[in-house]
Specification:
Length: 304
């Protein structure tokens, strides 16, 4: 089968299209014929070598496709079903992928739209759970215009929370379109957020840092307690400031979010835009675009 692999860390040019043996489903897995693969920032962080790991390495954390092998322990899907989910081993940029967690693709989505969902939706769900976000709360989402950010905004709203999201000047209306109040990054953040939350003395219950950029001191100031702040982006200042952190390799994942978001998509209450698609052979260009951090929506690879 065709697959993307790299034998050394480095720029996008290290990504190669190679021929590898087909994988086969273990008893607790399904195999899918891959139609679309989501691209995530962690993909190019691994490719650069900043996340460590052995070589050669493959890539692709999330896919959508058609089931063609079903493990002996699996009873809820059959060959021919259309599903999406995270890829066992992160080897999704290929003709075939193995999944142990998955959900049916909602009728409102095609393969491209479904492949965009798993990582962003799971991250948003997990971090909101960790923070205990619920009815009547106000949460600040730092980095609300990215895929995780817009997922977090929508899922927090579904839990009955009010959301204030930070984004660049060009993305203020984009963030508002998902149901959040919006403000910009940078100096004076705490004052701007308080003004949106109701003025001096207004309560901000929780804060989620999806973007880093030195926002943690302001988020702690706003919530009054580092334990009410969680970061998935600032692993340097996070431990020093005592905030919660999420995203480590051994942390349990909230893949139950896939079925939940399927219902929201079908009800018209959740959407995750796709910024651009690339053929599998164009993965280097897809990584370059992702590295700019300016794509408005997910980047998705098409597998013919």
């Amino acid at each position: 089968m065709r697959a993307i692999q790299y034998a050394e860390f480095g720029p996008p040019e290290v990504l190669e299209l190679v021929e590898l043996p087909e994988p086969h489903a273990a008893p607790d897995q399904i195999r899918v014929v891959v139609n679309a693969v989501g691209v995530n920032p962690v993909d190019w962080k691994f490719r650069r070598g900043t996340m460590g790991g052995d070589l050669p390495r493959r890539t692709g954390l999330e896919v959508a496709g058609v089931v063609d092998e079903v493990g002996d322990e699996i009873a809820d899907v059959t060959a021919g079903d259309h599903v999406f989910g995270p890829v066992a081993g992160g080897n999704g940029a290929a003709d075939f992928a193995l999944l142990a967690a998955y959900a049916p693709i909602p009728a409102a989505l095609d393969f491209v739209g479904a492949a965009a969902l798993p990582v962003a939706v799971e991250t948003a769900w997990r971090t909101l759970d960790r923070l205990g976000v619920g009815e009547g709360m106000t949460i600040v989402v730092n980095g609300a215009s990215g895929s995780v950010g817009v997922s977090t905004v929508q899922l927090a709203r579904e839990r009955g929370a009010a959301v204030i999201g930070t984004a660049g000047e060009a993305n203020q209306e984009y963030v508002r379109s998902f149901g959040a109040q919006a403000t910009t990054y940078g100096p004076g953040l705490a004052e701007r957020v308080r003004a949106l939350a109701g003025g001096e003395g207004a309560v901000v219950d929780r804060a989620l840092d999806d973007a880093g950029g030195g926002a943690l001191p302001s988020l702690i100031e706003l919530t009054g307690d580092p334990d009410r702040v969680l970061t998935i982006a600032d692993f340097e200042d996070g431990p020093r400031l005592g905030v919660q952190m999420s995203g480590g390799p051994d942390e349990p994942r909230a893949w139950q979010a896939l079925s939940a978001v399927t219902e929201l998509v079908e009800a018209g209450r959740f959407t995750l835009p796709v910024a651009e698609t690339f053929e599998l052979e164009g993965i280097a260009e897809a990584h370059r675009l992702s590295e700019t951090m300016h794509a408005r929506g997910k980047i998705v690879l098409l597998v013919d």
